[in-house]
Specification:
By secondary structure, the protein is of the alpha/beta class. The model has no long low-confidence stretch (mean pLDDT about 95). The protein folds into 2 domains: about 210 residues, Glycogen Phosphorylase B (Rossmann fold, 3-Layer(aba) Sandwich); about 160 residues, 3-Layer(aba) Sandwich (Rossmann fold). The strands form 2 sheets. A 7-stranded parallel beta sheet has the order 3-2-1-4-5-6-7, with helices on both faces. The protein contains 17 helices and 13 strands.
Length: about 400
């Protein structure tokens, strides 16, 4: 079987697909990743072959449009209303108009048996519909954005579909894979087919300190590159200061050198480290503090760790909601809370002292372990392609 992966030009949208791509390759199937340079580089880093389409997209710049200088998204607009999810989809309908022709050309030449994509890549649905091959979408985590995507795309791309030969409009995916553990997905989202989340945070060198047993609590702090790029450095500074005075606790803060130089002195209990694949270091951690990114949240869940979420935009707030609802941690979802060092300090103490959070995290981890692995899911995709 030949599987063509078409994904929006965002590395974090591609990352959840990588373990399934590995499983397909391991089972003897051919895999090709088609996308703009933003994701082809990530595919190469994952050991997959890719075909580059067009120029780099730089989605981070798109997300920063209209953001006032010095303010984080939560400071500029607060928690987004549900309508914001529809607004987040619009750029991808326009993006499809410029890329779908190239994807069609690749698919007609390479002749895949199945197309695999993320939830916002409409071109994959159009390619599958025109060529009569099944399309499988893979959620990256909680999915309120993807849930509204099809309706928006069907409306905006009806003319494009008609001109290309799909008078019935934008096709629906044949299968939607969901890596959220049982009970974690946003209840408003249409249920998908479960697939076990396998951390795919890239590769790197495991530092020597990762093998050392911490004397007390070790808490990993990871805000992601985009959060820091969107004026998040003051937030990181406050999180670091919030660890001061928490006994027997080491903060492991992942931050690149350019940002690290701007942070200034840190408490003795804080260790600043270069970004490293989280699955390489979370085994020695007690808890995780993060921005609500699904990759970080699911990786922490895979290790059974309670989480403190400080969301900033779009679905990161829903990630925090679900962590709280599942009893696996806490969320500070107002700018005033995040900007108050004492509020963050109290949340950290509560996260580490109340065993209920660790118990909730353990339940999520156990549920995740019941889901079919990517290797087991390969048979489902093979059957789907065969039926087509």
């Amino acid at each position: 079987m030949k599987v063509l992966i078409i994904t929006t030009p965002v590395a974090t949208h591609f990352a959840p697909l990588a373990p399934l791509a590995w499983a397909l390759r391991g089972a003897g199937h051919e895999v090709l990743v088609a996308g703009q340079p933003d994701v082809v580089a990530a595919a190469h880093a994952a050991g997959l072959s890719g075909h580059s389409v067009g120029e780099a997209f730089h989605a981070g710049e798109l997300m920063s449009l209209g953001l006032p200088a010095g303010l984080r998204p939560i400071e500029a607009g607060g928690r987004p209303a549900p309508a914001a999810f529809a607004g987040a989809v619009r750029p991808w309908t326009m993006h499809t108009r410029y890329t779908v022709g190239a994807y069609l050309e690749i698919a007609r030449s390479w002749k895949p048996d199945l197309v695999l994509s993320d939830r916002l890549e409409y071109g994959a649905l159009i390619v599958g519909g025109l060529l009569g091959i099944p399309v499988v979408q893979h959620r990256w985590g909680v999915d309120p954005v993807g849930e509204v995507a099809h309706a928006m795309g069907a409306h905006s791309l009806s003319g494009v579909c008609a001109r290309l030969g799909l008078p019935g409009g934008l096709p629906r995916p044949d299968l939607v894979l969901d890596p959220c553990p049982p009970g974690f997905q946003d209840p408003s989202v249409t249920p998908g087919t479960p697939i076990r989340y396998v951390p795919s945070n890239g590769s790197g060198t495991v530092p020597a300190w990762a093998f050392d047993e911490p004397a007390g609590h070790r808490v990993c702090v990871s805000l992601g590159q985009l959060t820091l790029a969107m004026n998040g450095l003051p937030l990181l500074r406050r999180i670091i200061d919030a660890f001061d005075g928490i006994p027997d606790t080491e903060a492991l803060v992942t931050v690149g050198a350019p940002y690290r130089e701007q942070l200034g002195p840190v408490p003795a209990s804080v260790r600043l480290v270069d970004p490293v694949p989280l699955d390489a270091v979370l085994g020695g951690c007690t808890a995780v503090v993060h921005h609500g990114g699904s990759g970080t949240q699911l990786t922490a869940t895979a290790f059974g760790l309670p989480q403190l979420v400080l969301p900033g935009h779009l679905d990161t707030f829903v990630v925090g909601d679900r962590i709280v609802a599942c009893g696996a941690g806490l969320s500070l979802d107002e700018a005033a809370q995040q900007n108050d060092v004492e509020a963050v300090h109290k949340a950290l103490r509560a996260l580490l002292s109340d065993p209920a959070h660790a118990e909730g995290a353990a339940r999520l981890r156990a549920g995740m372990a019941t889901q079919p692995t990517p290797a087991e899911t390969v048979a489902v995709l093979t059957e789907l392609a065969g039926a087509a």
